[in-house]
Amino acid sequence: MAAKKKRTPNVQNDSWVVVAADSVIDTQKHDSDPAFVRLRNPLTDAASLYMLGSGDVQLYEVKAFEEDFHSWFVGQTVQRDGRLIFVTPMDPLYLILPYLIKSGKEGKFQPVDQVVMDEEFPACSRLLSCTRSLTSLHHIAEEKEVGGLKFHRYSQERTMNWLKKKVERTVTALKKRNISVGEGVKSATFIRVKPDADSHEEDYLRYAHGLISEYISEDLSKALLKHLGLPELTSPKETEPPSKKRKLSDQPVEAEEDYTKFNSADFARKPPKKMTAAQKTLAKVDKTGMKPMSSFFSPKVKAEKK
Amino acid sequence: MDLNPFDVNNSVSCRLTSEIPEVCRTEDCCLGIDEAGRGPVLGPMVYGICFCPVSKKEDLKDLKVADSKTLSEPERENLFQTLDEAKSYVGWALQILSPNTISTSMLQRTKYNLNALSHDTAIGLVQFALDRGVQLKEVYVDTVGPAEKYEEKLSKLFPGIKVTVRPKADSLFPIVSAASICAKVARDRVVKGWNFAEDLGEVDTDYGSGYPNDPKTKAWLLKYLDPVFGYPQFVRFSWSTAQTLMDSKAVSVHWDDDEEDGEKAAQRQNNRSMLSYFGASAGGNDQNGTHQTHRYFTDRRLKSLNTL
Q1: B269: which chain A residues are within 8 Å (Cβ-Cβ)?
Q2: What average pLDDT values come out for chain B (308 residues) when binned by 10 residues?
Q3: Best CA proximity match to A49, nearest among A97, A103, A90
Q4: I need a surface site. Which of A289, B103, B151, B285 has the fewest CB within 10 A?
């Protein structure tokens, strides 16, 4: 039992356990197969894995369930990684949005196929083949049509309204699925006497905003928070209570201890007391910012006196 | 002895019993407990009880029951036959603990050791006799662990019964000898005719005594070691013999409750050192400016991928 087991690094394998939407494997209508593609992640600006359905008709995001100590038995083989990969439909606008924002800084109307271009991720132009892409561009951009050609320019206002709708829909979905959104932990088996509904509307909004923020840049996420009318949460450090209580009275502050005794000659001559080993180690501890035990007991008594 | 009930599913624990003699329900009885197959890495451990009226104690001696270890296999088979034929006043019951039961008990998260398993099986068999109306007054047990503690435990559980726990009880009390013969015969038969649940084809049954120090057993264990699954259920995985072989020859398997070196485990689990909470930039900055994934995904252990 005590024998140490060596962990060998995960070996790349050529098979995966995948849960995919039915539409992914519906290849009858189109000649090309669905394919994994690497595209620019709108949040991290780095590569992430996505999937384009057959004929590039639909975009899917790829997420993996990963936890320690899992493996698969697949047919007559063992799959070392216990990963479960989910391929779920995704709105291609999220991936198109960063390109539009970038070109929008120039303030010109441009044809989208010139905008959605990326040397690092050439596959991004395939996003425009998705059925939802071109028809829904008006959610995030203004449109102009000249001589049968369409030109687009990024619109922050339209985008915010579009994202707000996304948040609202997410809230509906969260409520329907009964997903716990509040702070702290809720037990699924613990039955509340009455559902605490309205007070948690903000919790739902915040949670949904957080979820949508996984798909947009941080700047957009902040703008969206404002658009939703939610104040920014302060960091826990700032919300910490002040370490000392403020004095409530206007009366002049009196010294609580008589420090003059340290000045007396009597004090100076006293040899320092010898400390035990435990006291010595205690003395070495950095006590900056720590309150003495006594501070928890004294103030109330004084308040009563006044 | 009909071993069918065990052969049907030899991955669990199984109880085999004789008829209860009528006389045992009316007269004060004595009962002996012994086990067979505690040490081997192969096959089941069998617990046996034998009981008869106190007045018939001397008759057992006439049957020439003796410590099963001093007897040859044919002698044991004959003696069992004799005991089984004395059904007018002798009853027996067996609990066959399959090697799988032993493995899973000893290797589960809350460890259940062999002594506890042994005690509980013995207690279960005594309770069985009581439930069937046997008028128990005396119980004799070959000890497992310290005799006094075991005796005290059993006496408390069965008030009104005189419990005697002795090392080597199987050579001291004929009723314990009888129980040991029943257990040993059952174990021998089960091991000989082991019904492998695994699809191993033609199995080489020349596995010797099944004890860890038997060269034949060792050779057999090497031969039937599967790199992924280890062994057939015939083998007690919890025995260090089996574990050592699996550690060196089979694929390593990591379990959630494996003990790992503290620091390495902490690193693997991305635990932060306590010290990091006191540093100058405590809180907030620990992510190095990178985005913290929403808890919807972290709670569900979902991650984005950048390659497959």
Answers
A1: 68
A2: 78 88 90 92 94 86 74 88 87 93 91 89 94 91 85 91 89 89 91 83 83 90 91 92 91 81 59 60 45 87 88
A3: A90
A4: A289
